[in-house]
Amino acid sequence: MPQLDIQISIEDADWPAEPVLGETAERVLKAAAAYLAENETQPFPPMPVEVSLVFTDDASIREINAEWRDQDKPTNVLSFPAFPLVPGGKPGPMLGDIVIARETVAREAVELDKNFDEHLTHLLVHGFLHLFGYDHMDREEAEKMESLETRILATLGLSDPYAGHEPA
């Protein structure tokens, strides 16, 4: 089973406590890594692969989104791979960073009629897949990525977050 070294930074006091976020992140990301290794034959190095999680707020993620994506608005999750990786490529010792904004996650959870933890779980999986080179810039990529997300979330007991929607 792939080994992960998960580093957590909490920049917004309204997020749950670090032990709670750590348990959630470990459960979710290990399930995603195991699924990729078993079903997508994703190669992992024998040593732990580091992933950094930043739990922040809308103001901070808006600044990051404006600087790196030229989109001056908050978003739910941003991923920054440490090294370019194509799906199925072997990661190095550092996967990259996943940044998640609490207010956007909470707002979307209400809009989607989901509980906060389920939506956070989905976004962790989504961000994690971006670190492995998966994307949703065109229909084919979106179908592949969304299918993977759905199958990984099913291993965690969650339903298809895209049911009834066209691929992004």
TrEMBL record:
Biological-process GO terms, alphabetical: rRNA processing
InterPro entries found in the cross-reference section: MetalPrtase_cat_dom_sf_prd (IPR023091), YbeY (IPR002036), YbeY_CS (IPR020549)
One protein family per Pfam: YbeY
Cofactor: Zn(2+)
HAMAP family in the cross-refs: Endoribonucl_YbeY
Function: Single strand-specific metallo-endoribonuclease involved in late-stage 70S ribosome quality control and in maturation of the 3' terminus of the 16S rRNA.
Protein name: Endoribonuclease YbeY
Gene encoding the protein: ybeY
